[in-house]
Known about the structure:
By secondary structure, this protein is α/β, with parallel strands linked by helices. It has three helices and 13 strands; from the N terminus they run βαβββββαβαββββββ. β11 and β12 form a beta hairpin. The chain starts with a strand and ends in a 10-residue tail after the last strand.
Amino acid sequence: MVLEIVSGCMFSGKTSYLIETVSRAVQQNKTYSVFTPSIDTRYGSGTVGSHDNVTLTANPLTETTAEEILTSSSDVILIDEINFLNPDAVPAILQKAQNSHVVAAGLNTDFRAEPFEPVPQLLENADKTIFKTAICDVCGEPATRTQRIIDGEPAHYSDPVVDVGGSEKYEARCEDCHTVLTE
């Protein structure tokens, strides 16, 4: 069938795209299942949410294998925040895409502007890719990067890559306004 990957920085509309895909599936009388890594509890456990507060009920995924998607018999499989999955989850996603339409969304780069695995692996295998941009919180230009803010300052390169959060910790930035502090 199809593996569709939606990537981009935070606040670019990736989850909103998944929510629109659910609406299209309903209009086409297709069944769907929504999944999200269990680490992402920003909108509650088992909930996918956009930054404009639209939510969907989701099935929590084990970050290491994502085997839960293999049991779904739905026509359309939607996976949010694939950047929180371990690269070991890729085989399950690719296997499911052989007999379902899989739409997976996540950050393509981390706050350092470095590839955020396993998204690059999934992009390499995708039948369709969509790259979303946001609006830079500093200058208003198109944003392609995610800026982590800690105590009002840009994060340091040595800070942990995964720190689940929203606008209290992150901003959308263009390449010129994006900053990562070094020690």
